[in-house]
Automatic annotation (TrEMBL):
Enzyme Commission code: 7.-.-.-
Keywords: Cell inner membrane, Cell membrane, Electron transport, Flavoprotein, FMN, Membrane, Phosphoprotein, Translocase, Transmembrane, Transmembrane helix, Transport
Gene of this entry: rsxG
Residues of the FMN-binding domain: 103-195
Cited function: Part of a membrane-bound complex that couples electron transfer with translocation of ions across the membrane.
Predominant location: membrane
Quaternary structure and interacting proteins, as annotated: The complex is composed of six subunits: RnfA, RnfB, RnfC, RnfD, RnfE and RnfG.
Leading EC class: translocase
Pfam families attached to this UniProt entry: FMN_bind
Family classification: Belongs to the RnfG family.
Record-given protein name: Ion-translocating oxidoreductase complex subunit G
GO biological process: electron transport chain
Length: 209
């Protein structure tokens, strides 16, 4: 009887150790899988961001790594705006950053590229929740409307003209979705205002990394 109990104890102890080893191996495998997934997600996000940045700059405009060359500038509300610097031979030639305004169904997030003279090189809507078939015409894939900002600046277009035509401005509105283009116009204009206010800091841009 005593022998049987001893054998049972040994078996139970062995099983406990085995389960512990299995759990440890499983945890390690899960950690490796999670780490690998996270790395792939980060890499995919970097590729998407690089693609977005290139859309608001002319082809082969910059010769630096845009993702690695950034500047943080205060928004005045306690938050910072990340500015991506496009350089040519070490000199800042343009700045790219996000700006936003309230649309019909939420904030419309816009990416703008502005050259050192304050001229808009390009604008793209990154995110919105506007009505499909109406407000979504702010997307380049749906309409070329967003291209109407190219080449404009605060110097070439008076402040009162930064509005849709219904409000006395120069930008076309969209049938049934006037609020949406208003938001984009406002966001782009505020982006140009931000650049003008911080132009010296942006063009200094620190040293070439």
């Amino acid at each position: 009887m005593k022998l049987a109990i001893a054998v049972l104890r040994d078996r139970l102890g062995y099983q406990g150790v085995s389960l512990g080893v299995v759990a440890l191996v499983a945890s390690a495998a899960l950690a490796v899988a999670v780490s690998g997934t996270r790395e792939r997600i980060v890499a995919a996000e970097a590729r998407d961001l690089q693609a977005s940045l290139s859309q608001v700059l002319p082809e082969r405009f910059a010769d630096n790594d845009l993702l690695a060359d950034t500047l943080e500038i205060g928004n005045g509300d306690g938050s910072n705006k990340r500015v991506y610097l496009a350089r040519r031979q070490g000199e800042v030639a343009a700045a790219i950053f996000q700006t936003s305004a309230r649309g019909y169904a939420g904030d419309v997030l816009v990416l703008v590229g502005i050259d050192r003279a304050g001229v808009l090189l390009g604008a793209r809507v990154l995110k919105h929740a506007e009505t499909p078939g109406l407000g979504d015409k702010i997307d380049l894939a749906k309409s070329p409307w967003i291209l109407s900002f190219n080449g404009l600046s605060l110097a070439t277009l008076p402040a009162e003209k930064w509005a849709v035509k219904k409000d006395g401005g120069v930008f076309d509105q969209m049938a049934g979705a006037t609020i949406t283009p208003r938001a984009v116009v406002k966001a782009v204009k505020e982006g140009l205002d931000f650049f003008a206010a911080h132009r010296a800091e942006i063009l200094q841009g620190g040293k070439t990394p």
